[in-house]
Amino acid sequence: MKRWIWLVGGLAVFGLARTAAPAVAAGAAAAEEEPVTVITSDRLTFDSNQRVALFEHNVLVTDAKMQLAADKLTVQFDDKGQAKTIKAEGRVTITQLDRTAQSEQALYDVPTGKIVLTGKPRVTRGRDVLEGEIITYWRNEDRMICQPGARLLIYPEKGGLQDQFRGE
Asked: What is the pLDDT of residues 52-77, one digit of tens each?
């Protein structure tokens, strides 16, 4: 089974490309100039008229600040070829620094950095666990809201969430 690899960076997304092959080539050139996001999957469907890319099966997104895995990923682009929204579905796992988030769906608003996790969302840091119906995380601000039904388990270990709240 062929795996698509897509490099996303600046105009390399779709502004200059209409098919996967030119996007990869353009992405490789842009990789030298700015941070790049790499998306791999077993299948890629792209509609240039609708500005939508659909990645299916074994989806893995890697950039300098995080990694995301899911069964399906839909990327909506603006008229300049920049990613506007990203929707991940099915066994979503996001890893960033020492935190891991899991859910059935994640919706990422790229301009604001807002990620909304639904479908039994769970965020872990070490042994500490946060759960609720909806977990909203602002990636650029390192801020989070969990509601309704927020449940936080904090374990008394050095370097855990308790130490962070106390500033240790």
From this structure: 999 999 999 998 888 999 999 999 99
Residue for token digits 């977990």? 135
Q: In terms of pTM, does the model score above 0.90?
A: no
End-to-end CA distance of the chain: 49
All domains of the chain in start order, with CATH: 1-94 (no CATH), 97-168 (2.60.450.10)
In the structure encoding, which two tokens stand for residue 46, read together?
């792209």
Measured CA to CA, the distance from residue 145 to residue 90 in angstroms comes to: 22
